[in-house]
Every structure is written in structure tokens, then in C-alpha cells.
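Input.
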Amino acid sequence: MNENKYDSTEIVSENRVYNKLQNFWYHNKWTVIVVAFFVCVVVVCTLQMFGKEKYDISIVYGGTAHMESDERAAFVGALQGILPEDYDNNGKKAVGLVEYQIFSEKEIYTEVEKEVDGELVTVKEPMVALNWNTEQYSSMQSAVSKTGEYSLCFASPYVYEQLLKGYAVEGKTVRLGDTDFYLYNEAVQVLPADTVVCLLRQFMVGQSSKDEIYNRSVALFDAIVAYDVAE
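Output.
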């Protein structure tokens, strides 16, 4: 008998707790949802901030070349090998690379054979979607001219003429294929020999506005030009 009373008391207590929780949820559910959302955002942003690799320098490439992951790693590794210093003193030299695959109107079309009315004919078709090419062009234009995040650029002759030439520092432009850094590094030859390496002037905003950061780009450009396989 006493046992049954004890069980009934337990049930009544559990129901009261449940009712309180239900009542709290009914009156505060939107507050809880909003707070939980912002907590999740803070947690995710914090994890991304601490998990994101920090670079000594970030560079940009714009042109027709596309690097596979292993080619990209090898190319970046070659640059890290000649980076003068581990600027943030974290034990390793790290170069960040942002790529934009951009074609000129002539470069984007390729000739392919197609069967038309039972006959093989040669037609020109774009290698990538035209709207995607336009988006890549616009994205690099914004990255270079509006954010001030990049000072050292690798670019096809077309991209250099269209986007970079007006910002390039006089005397700080070189054809990549004319450097020993290109001739004696297979990893660098993933880019065409006519790739232009150029140093952009400092901007009033972004990383390039800071002398310390900008001078890292100057030093890496000079290291590319001065590279001597004999040393």
C-alpha cells in the first residue's frame, strides 16, 4: 500500500516538472530559439577562426591554368621554399593562394568536331560557361581593386592587361618563364611560361595598406626574380 502511494507521488512530481517545462517552452520558445541560434553562430565562427590556417603572405592567380590539389600544393610549396622569413614565427612558412580561372574571348573557345546532318564539321565551343567566366573576372577585379588584400599577383597576359597593369609598380613586373625560379622548378611550370608576375602598389584599405604586410610581397617578388639555381 505504502509502495503504491510512493509511486503515485513520483508520478505527480514528474507531471509537475513536465508541466513547468511545457509552460516555460510555451512562453519562452522564441527567446530560446533566438539565443540558441546566436550561440551556434558564435561557436561556429570561433571554431572557424581558430581552425583557419594563418598565412605569412597571400597571393592571387588569374588566368587559364587550373591546378589540381597536388599541383597546387607543389606550387605553393615552391613559393614557401623561397619566402625569406617565417614572418609570424609559428614554425613554418605559409603562403595562401587564391585562384581565378579566367579566359579571354579568344582563349575561351576551342574547336571541336560535331556531326551535323550526317557530316563531321568543326565548330567552336566555349571550354567553360560564359557566365561563370564573367563571374570569375568580376570576382578577381573586386579582390584586387577594392579589398586591397593582395599585392603579389600571377596572371595571364590578358588578365594582366585588363585588370592589373594600372595598379602595377613600375619595374616590379616579370615574365615568369624568364626566371630561374620557373626554369628549374617543375612545380612552378604548372603555370604557362607567359604568366606575368607583378607587384601591385599599396592600397588605402586591406592588408596591402599595412607596410609590414606589404613588404612581405615585395620580398617574395624580389626572391622570385633573384632566384639562382647555382646558389
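The two ends are 96 Å apart (CA to CA).
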